[in-house]
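Final report, Chapter 2: Outcomes

The project's central promise was a pipeline that accepts a single protein chain and returns its three-dimensional structure in a standardized token representation, suitable for archiving and comparison. That pipeline is now operational. To close this chapter, we reproduce one record exactly as it appears in the project archive, with the input sequence first and the structure output second.
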Amino acid sequence: MIRFARVAKFGYVRVETTGETACGSRPFPPLSCRHCLTDVPAGAPYLIVAHRPFEALHPYAECGPLFVCADACARHPDGPDLPPILTTSPDYLLKGYSADERIVYGTDKVVAQAGIAAYAAQVLDDPRVRHIHVRSARNNCYQLRIAPD
């Protein structure tokens, strides 16, 4: 015989009392849309789609989940200003990639929110680097790409 068991109540109590999950992280919501680069409005539908932030298929071209608003949203304009999606955490993981979509070793670094633009400019000064991926420093979730202007 088998038994299907719900999630133990202590997990919910921890979130209710501390705001953190059993792993010490915050629960998923709010979710950030990778198209408008803002949080999906509370209670609004969203989609979880598979995304590969690389042009070619190769062994290093990982594919992972990406959150987007289910309803049409305006694409965040490309530009030099820090988008809202990068203001919700104290730090982010930045990794430089070459033209052949390989990590340029020595460029991956967890960077404080206030230092993202300066570190990105420094990494992009390296002629081996074509662009940078910004990821969550906690869960490695892809956020966006930084490229030279």
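Archive annotation: The CA atoms of residues 91 and 112 lie 4 Å apart.
This record, like all others produced under the grant, will remain available to the consortium after the project formally closes.
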